[in-house]
UniProtKB/TrEMBL annotation:
<dbReference type="InterPro" id="IPR006121">
    <property type="entry name" value="HMA_dom"/>
</dbReference>
<dbReference type="GO" id="GO:0046872">
    <property type="term" value="F:metal ion binding"/>
</dbReference>
<protein>
    <submittedName>
        <fullName>Heavy metal transporter</fullName>
    </submittedName>
</protein>
<keyword id="KW-0479">Metal-binding</keyword>
<feature type="domain" description="HMA">
    <location>
        <begin position="1"/>
        <end position="63"/>
    </location>
</feature>
<dbReference type="InterPro" id="IPR017969">
    <property type="entry name" value="Heavy-metal-associated_CS"/>
</dbReference>
<dbReference type="Pfam" id="PF00403">
    <property type="entry name" value="HMA"/>
</dbReference>
<dbReference type="InterPro" id="IPR036163">
    <property type="entry name" value="HMA_dom_sf"/>
</dbReference>
């Protein structure tokens, strides 16, 4: 499981965008988001490097948590 803090993930639209970005690199990824906590948990076989790059490319400031 990967865990990140995404400081500019502020609403449900952000969650949808981030989820879509993650599932763009792993269609089977399971994404759990906590908007209030700005945190994201992802079950995926993809590497953290690939996942965080995809989230960053979608416009989000992602740091490992
Ligand atoms: Cu938003």
């Amino acid at each position: 499981m990967l865990r990140y803090t995404i400081e500019n993930m502020t609403c449900g639209h952000c969650v949808a965008t981030v989820t879509k970005a993650v599932q763009g690199v792993d269609a089977n990824a399971i994404v759990r988001a906590d908007v209030a906590g700005r945190s994201l948990e992802i079950d995926t076989g993809a590497t953290s490097e690939i996942v965080s790059a995809a989230v960053a490319a979608a416009g989000y400031r992602v740091t490992p948590a």
